[in-house]
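My main concern about presentation is that the manuscript never shows what a single data entry looks like. Each protein is reduced to its one-letter sequence and a matching series of backbone shape codes. For the editor and my fellow referees, an illustration may be useful. For illustration, here is how one protein appears when written out as sequence plus structure tokens:
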Amino acid sequence: MKILVVGGGIAGSASAYWLNDMGHEVVLVDGAPAIPSGGYLIQLDRTAQSLLTEMGAGAMVDSMSVPAPQVSVRGPRQPRFELRTPGFRLARRSDLVGAVLRHTAERVPLQLGRELVGIEQDADHVTARFRDGGNEDFDLLVGADGLRSTVRRQILGPDDRLVYENGRTNVWIDVPGLSDHGDAAVLTGNEYVAQVFPYPNADRSLVVASTFTGSSRPDVEVLRHGAVALLRQHGPDFAHLADAAVEADAETIRLTRFAQVRAPRWHNGRVVLVGDAAHCVDPLSGLGAHAGLLGAQLLTTQLTRSADLGRGLHRYEREMKPFVKLAQFTTAALVEGTTPHNLRHRISSVASFLKATAHAIPAAVDAWRHRSLTTGVAPAAA
């Protein structure tokens, strides 16, 4: 098949790599004018590392990431405990994403600065229309263009029906120095929750704090003040990070809304979604690389196993959704439970937890059934 992949992130690069590896004619486009660099952090669990290694990017992972630090979880009225993530690694997000994109571009034609603006399709092909006025026909279009996906809006409708937001805002503050205990931390208190993580091979830390702001426009200085107060509440280990957050240039502070893509379906005709475009869990979950890579490989596997395009897309979605729903409801429950604004929010977090529990068994069964996916793309069925 002639396939267009839209989006040069982890999911898009992996989709283009594996689809090309299966013999398809693949083109990869991204609206950005250049390959990214720098950025915040990306977590790679063992599954993500294994899948990147299968792409031939294992050495890249080793050189660009470091073992994830131990995480101490601290609350104002609870004993401190340690959260261990054996085998996990951390990297600069855009550095790694850019390196994986360059790796894929050694095999797949890459067109940067090519922005998709429209899609038309019939039973035989899908036409991609670009901002530069060009258009081209394909057998399949893969949308890997992130949380605010153009492809998703084209095939499923506006974001307000597909993206779940719970009124929480995340404030991202990049500061010099490390916490005095040297590891990462999750801090709770004062209706805020914060993650503090050291950057790989650098004397810098990332502070990400979340709180409820509702539908109102969040104020950078109010959220900065809340993050600083939470750091100070947890004592001298974080005092100098609090001081650094006070001094941080407001222009460098980023605000994001908690958001999850909860679309009822991920494909329509000859167009399919992968990664955050299909099922964003939220950047704070640490599951983006795992979900994007696994989804890209599962899509390729199901297209290879089925001679019928629609059946392959349906199987990809059916097999991936239990894991996604478990991850989404668990993440929402944790965020909502640690940043309650009133009784209704506490009830909402319990509801999310119950939904996560309801999806735990099918997700576990799905993981068992497709364990072979972490060891390679399955060959076509005879």
